[in-house]
């Protein structure tokens, strides 16, 4: 106990305090002096701690219902007809947006260093992480207005599909940037090996999450139509277990839940009883509604209760400029390239509307609040809050006026475009996967070769013969 004050009468603050309580010694280390103002605010700080949640609560509890419902309520016909364009916007567009935003913000950070406005370290990897965070679009308000006004179906499919996959890409992209670790002491220098390792992590996590979500969605094939309540409960538990299983395997649970929802909407939904179909739709719609409203309510609370806000006018202005440039670099060049191969072109007015509809919402907030330990992350979180509020209020509120200005209020009745990839997938899915995994579609006895007759009869459910009465039902198989 050398250099330790053993006295109850302490005149100055020692570095270490040793307290004897009933023969047991407790060591206390000095962290800092508490001012009189901070002492008066102890009760207020205690109240703030009670209304503050662990950031992982948002990511692990509130986001999965939102993402799952996005996949479960997907308009699959229009989604798959525009799959190529949606994938281009979601993958290439998000990567382009991340790079553009990161570069512009890095320029603002360099300006802040020159002018002496920077109060801590802010590296290029932080700028790229900020680009990934605010590249996650969430046009919920815009899509609700689109649905209400029955606007162009192609525009709705492109925006909705992009926003669904864009969230998944932004999550994995941000994780890959955080995992960027160059060799040597400086973890923020450019290293080719580390860059390709991060790209490999991105591809591995995304493909693994996709495979696990799709596989779990197929596994939830149920035959409990006589027990709707049990059927609904099992459906919910299997959907939620997708998230837990993906996280346990080192993948991203939110991404797995998204593809689980898409798979279940396409296959499992057809196996549910009519009552369970209505129940699952209403259940996940309710959970989505509650989670989104809670997150937006907490955003308003966090604006006033977060203790470490860092607002810098230069950074805020640069961030707003960056998100507009990033969105433009995403939409317009990719639309031009996509139109070269599309029969049903993406019109200029639709491109302007897609540019306008780049709102930020719950996903950007959840990604930003996960880590606020450093000066850079605190500034990123504070600026993200402002971006979310501004885009939702201004762009969300101006959607109706913009639709009128661009003259795209009414739904177009154009002939649907069917790319060769979509036609191949549709034929394979309709003839083989749906009969195997659901009660719908033509029986496998009519699509498989004659030599596979015994296997086809055993894999075809009785309900499939009821849907196709022209095919005789062989009762001995079931």
From TrEMBL:
Aminoacyl-tRNA synthetase: present as a keyword of the record? no
What sequence ranges are listed for the domain Cation/H+ exchanger transmembrane?
51-404
Q: How does it sit in the membrane?
A: Multi-pass membrane protein
Task: Indicate where this protein resides in the cell.
Answer: Cell membrane; Recycling endosome membrane
GO BP field? regulation of intracellular pH; sodium ion import across plasma membrane
Main location per the UniProt record: membrane
Cellular compartments per GO CC: plasma membrane; recycling endosome membrane
Print the keywords alphabetically.
Answer: Antiport, Cell membrane, Endosome, Ion transport, Membrane, Sodium, Sodium transport, Transmembrane, Transmembrane helix, Transport
InterPro entries registered for this protein in UniProt: Cation/H_exchanger_CPA1, Cation/H_exchanger_TM, NaH_exchanger, NHE-6/7/9
As one GO molecular function, the record gives: potassium:proton antiporter activity
Question: Which NCBIfam families did the record assign?
Answer: b_cpa1
Q: What is this protein called?
A: Sodium/hydrogen exchanger
Annotated gene: SLC9A6
